[in-house]
Design brief:
By secondary structure, the protein is α/β, with parallel strands linked by helices. It is 43% helix and 8% strand.
Length: 406
Amino acid sequence: MVIMGAYRLAMEFVVAISISSMISMQVVLLGVAGASAASAAVDLDQPPVARRPMFVLGDSTLDVGNNNYLAGANVPRANMPYYGVDVPGFPTGRWSNGYNTADFVAKYLAAGLVSSSPPAYLSLVAPTSGSGLVPPLAAAALTTGVSYASGGAGILDSTNAGNTIPLSKQVGYFNTTRSRMIAAAGSGAVADQLLAKSVFLIGIGGNDLFAFANAEQQAAPNRSAAQQQDDADAFHASLISNYSAAITDLYSMGARKFAVINVGLAGCLPVARLMDPTGACAGDRNQLAASFNDNLRSLLGNLASHLPGFTYSLADSLGLMAATFADPPAYGGFTDVASACCGGGRLRAETSCMPNSTLCADHDHLYFWDHIHPSQRAAFLRAQAFYDGPAQYTTPINFKQLANMT
């Protein structure tokens, strides 16, 4: 199968890089692989291949370890087995058995010359970050880019408040990054030129939908259908308003190319299937996601119509999941798209993935790694579809076309 062959080649490359990293004891666990090297020097006249940086904002589907640096007992973290069990063989902070969607998109954008996502922002400003001719945050921003994504993050500040990095704060961190870029480059014009070429990968909204749906479910006995619809309309309006503000702020700071991933089938996550005795998808949650996606599509089209130079590619995570779940063997050879590979209880989704969890036998044939997040193989197929896959999964252009636009 062509897809299987491509996946094997990609995994061989990733595993080779990971083994090399483990031997040299690079700090992959902290999500700063390559940052210390970049901090030694940045040659602005002879840019490396990755000098089309990628800046990542989003939630746990894109997080590469920012939450490892957040304090608090209730902070969601993926810094324990069996996360990372396949690649690199130990936890890195990614909510996966290996790499996630951001990693594979970064690999595609750099033509395979990088093996993973840009490093986590908090790893670059931590007290233990390396020193060099250029501070690590500026060095990463000027070469590979930076990831601000955070597990549990929402478009709304109120989503998982105090235990994550909400979208508005991620945008604030990018503002700090831009200031460091200008200081290191010695010119705002140089930073602006680089940012105009950079890809801003954004994937967020699922946690907001999850929190809202749970609250509505509890309140449902006391709410009429009309009241519930009003609640949903107001909720979507709030999400889009905040999303618009974030993108507009990024644009004002020099961002021009936006690779946006919409919300997937929220009602088909293993944790959502638990609500049905037969394990069926929760239709109301899928409809909530579909309505948000419609609004997001309209928002991006509207922004493109009045922001000069604004370009975007909207990836249809929901549509790809629907096609995959309708015919799992054809879309990646999956044998199970309902259960988690790592967890406990029914569908292995009643508990999260932990060191004492039960693991499925074949990690590559289940779509979900834990009760919420896609497996490494599913992440690879997502990135493949969004970068240069079938036209129905991206609009108006794909990620490759977006990156190559001048």
